[in-house]
Amino acid sequence: MPSYTAPTRDTRFIINEMLDLESYAELPGFEAASADVTDAVINEGGKFCAEVLAPINQSGDQEGCTRHEDGSVTAPKGFKEAFDQFREAGWGTLSQPEEFGGQGMPHVLGFAFEEFVSSANQAFGMYPGLTNGAVSALLAKGSQEQKEKYLPKMISNEWTGTMNLTEPHCGTDLGMIRTKAELQADGSYAITGTKIFISAGEHDMADNIIHLVLAKTPGAPDSTKGISLFVVPKFLVEEDGSIGERNGVVCGSIEHKMGIHGNATCVLNYDGAKGWLVGEENKGLAAMFIMMNAARLGVGIQGLSQAEVAYQNAVAYALDRRQGRALTGPAEPEQQADPIFVHPDVRRMLMDAKAFTEGMRALCLWGALQVDLSHKAATEEEREQADMLIGLLTPVIKGYGTDKGYEVATNMQQVFGGHGYIEEWGMSQFVRDARIAQIYEGTNGVQAMDLCGRKLAQKGGAAVQAFFKVVGEDIAEAKGDETLAPLAEAMEKALGQQQAATMWFMQNAMQNPNHLGAGAHHYMHIMGIVTLGWMWLRMAKVAQAALAAGTDDKAFYEAKLTTARYYMDRYLPDAGALRRKLETGSDSMMALGEDAFATAA
User: Fold this and answer.
1) Half-sphere exposure in the Cβ direction for 105 (13 Å, CA)
2) Is 441 a residue of the active site?
């Protein structure tokens, strides 16, 4: 059976030392996040996930969710009991506003815990995770009445939430949705239509489910400009807050999926269901994007989480499994064979995983801090910069993070050899669960086009220029340190590759937009490589300072420096190769006609 241990030591290092969370103590919400409190949340959260959620991950995958004839759904054995413990411990309230029952802690702590939950049991984590996204949308666009009616019980996880976007015929092109919303005499709307791929759409773990649904009112433009957002509860809520009669929404079926079997991904049928407009009519997509952007960061964490748990199990297997001899001579001559850990190709995969997971963890937590600073930083300039940077890097965290997360998970399966293909070892589940993250919340091709087609050009390129500036400043500072200088010089070259790729887009994409589309995926990966390198440079700086000060945890900080060097040696060179691919443009990619793709008999 696979195992999981929350990486609490690494998380504390990033939050307390790299991000120095206590230095923000004067900002709202940060005053309570002392190192002692932060450490307690991280340690206890990690313990909960390892002891309560991880043991039901594999069984939940094997059992899956069950739909009954009346359309009700039950989660796998143990899920409801675990969700009760999750709710009673208040884990879902960490970063939620105190006004509605939350603890008001920084998002950094919420993101750290979210990684632990997702590694331990990704299917389980999606129930509270989607609720958090729905809460974000209602906080931003809901009326005060809607906030007071729904948010306290959603934040407490007595109720859960969903997002209902796509339909069988439209996929990402939401302008094509057909779900209708007709105004009623009492001010509500009758919602009719079918939504697909609705994660956590029906289950037995909460008393109510609050659906946020995209639909079109009569006469609305037949495009994204005609979309409105509605709140549609599974059970109607009475004036006193109690649960009333069942609403006209039912689970028609559960999707048969490659992975995340413990989460009920539903087809939801709305038949005159009673809903209420959220925000302005025909402005629903803007409201939903608030939820989607929060979800995209969460999906990036899913990429990290499956890479992490797969990595942990691969390390344990590589240390235990014996096969062959070390190329430099027997490592353990008294044994019949050496552990496969000694083989460079196995070590390559493990080092790739270690470099990615620790770098990606730093990026996700740094991103969470930017979310906090975009609202709470002391000056407007600081808030604007944080907002620009996290807006720019959201598609990178989601797209690059999940592409590499899936790659790491499959490589960790490879470490097991034939045993990795056998279900009892659990590696197959990590690979299958990781795969959905590349598709969720806009496929990674959509993320790449969001980055290159929208984010690079916004405000005259202000965001990417701000990114180049802050990374460049850290590189310049590190070049003055003898130990860090080689890392900084490697980073300088990689940043130059990204800057050159950006300039090529500026010079060529206007005359042929296909050049942008053909290179967007490569550019997203270049930026991912550079951004994780930046995180490693920052971590190396902290590690070097700790070693210079005579830390008692010498092995931990030395491993940080070694892994940083590995990242610069093995990851950064790919930025140049990707730039050269990008600069070939779209001509050969788009040249063939449709007939050339047909297989001849």
Assistant:
1) 23
2) yes
